[in-house]
Amino acid sequence: MAKLTRRDGLILGLGAAAGAMLPGGRALRAQVPVADVQPPSYPIEKGAKLRVLRPSKFVKGDEELWLANSKKFTEQTGVEVIVQQESWADLRPKTAVAASVGSGPDVILAWQEDPHMFPGRMLPLDDLATYLGKKYGGWFPVCEIYGKNQEGQWIAMPIGGSGSTMVYRRSSVEKAGFDTFPSDFPGFLKLCQGLKKVGHPVGFALGNAVGDGGWTDWILWGFDSSLVDEQDNVIIDNPRTYEALEYARELYETFIPGTLAWLDPSNNKTYLSGDISLTGNGISVYYAAKNSDDPRMRELAEDTFHADYPIGPLGKPSQGSLVINAMVMAHTDYPNAAKEYLRFMMEKEQYVPWMEASIGYWCHPLAAYDESPVWTSDPKHEPYKNVLRKAMPQSWKGTPGEAASACKADYVVLGMFQSVCAGSMTPKEAAAEAQRRAERYYKA
C-alpha cells in the first residue's frame, strides 16, 4: 500500500515529467489529437482523502507511473491518495466485499464486467465518460459494453485492457518448419505439434488464471459458440462447443506438463526460463526480457515476436481483453474528488506517459490514443495496439450483468476446458456440466 502526500510527491512527479518525453526532448503528449471540450466541474470536497484499489503490476512501469501520476494529482489538488494493490486473484473478492458492506476504497479499478454485479453500489459517471469520449475520439465498443448498464448509464469507466497476443520465439518457430506465424486454427495446431516434436513445447494457463485463462474463450468463440445466446439463454451445451473442446484437447497434448495448475504469472516465468517457446500473453514477457541486465534475457528479447491470435471457423478475431474498469463507490464521502482523480488520470498528460512506461501493457480504451508513440517506438509493440478495438466482451453473445459476471468469477468456461484437458470428462460431459453451472446463475 502506498500513501501519497503532497510532501513526498516531488521526486516521482518529476519522474512522470521525464517519462513524458521522447528521446531528443520531444513531448509525448503532443502526439495525441484532442478536441476542444470543456471538462465537467467537480469542486473538490474540503479535507478530501481517497483510497484507491487496483490490480498489482505485471510490468514495473505500470506501477511506477500510476503512483507518480497519483502523486502529481496530490501536488495539484491537495487530496491525499492511498493506492492499494491486490493480486489479480484477490482483486475480485476484495471488490465484492467493499461493494457488499458499503465501505472501503473510494475508487476501485475492478475487472471487466464486475461492476455489473453490484447495481446501485457505485455512482454514475455519464458526464465524465461523455467528456472523455468527445475529447479523445470516442470509446471503443467493448468499453461501452463494460461501462454502461442495460439502461445505457455509465456505471464504470474502462481505464485500459491487458492485451494478449501470441508470444513466440522466432528461432523455434522456424525450427518447427514455419516461415510465418499461422493465421488459422488448423495451422496453429500444426505449429504447436511441430514445436513439441522439435523439443520446444508451448504452454497456456489452465489453472484459475484471471487473465491468461482467457485463451479458452478465444477457442470457444472461434468455433462460434458461447455461454449464452443473444437473449441470454444458456446454450453452451451444443455441438460447436464439443468441437472447440476437442480442438483444445489436441492443443493440450503439445503443452509442457503442469499447465493445469498455472496461474497468471506462470507462463511469464516459464517462457523467460526458456522452457516454452510459445504462449499467449500481454507484452509483459517481452518487457521483462528487454529491460533485463542479463545478456541471456536480452538475447531472448531479440528472438521474441508477437502475432495476432489465429482465427477459427467464426471467420474473425475472437479474443477478449482483461479490462480494468474504474468505479466510484456510492459509499465514498468524496465523490467529486474521486471523479476528478479519474479525469486527471485519463488526460493525455498523465495517460500517455503511463502507456509509455508500461510499453502498452494496458491498451488504451479511447481512439485518440492510437497516436501514442508507444505503438511506433518499437515494431514489436504494434500487435497490441488494437486489442481493445477488436475485443469481444466476456458476456458475448449476451449482455453484461450479474449472471455473466458471476459465471466469469466462477470460471464456468475455463473449468469446462480444464476438465476436458485433464481427461476427467468428455467434451459432451464437460459442456453439460458447464450448462448446469451457468443456468444456476442465469435462473437465479
TrEMBL record:
Coiled coil: none annotated. GO terms for cellular component: periplasmic space. The keyword Methyltransferase does not apply. Keywords: Signal, Transport. It comes from the Bacteria. Pfam families: SBP_bac_8. It is found in: Periplasm. Belongs to the bacterial solute-binding protein 1 family. This is ABC transporter substrate-binding protein. It comes from Marinimicrococcus flavescens.
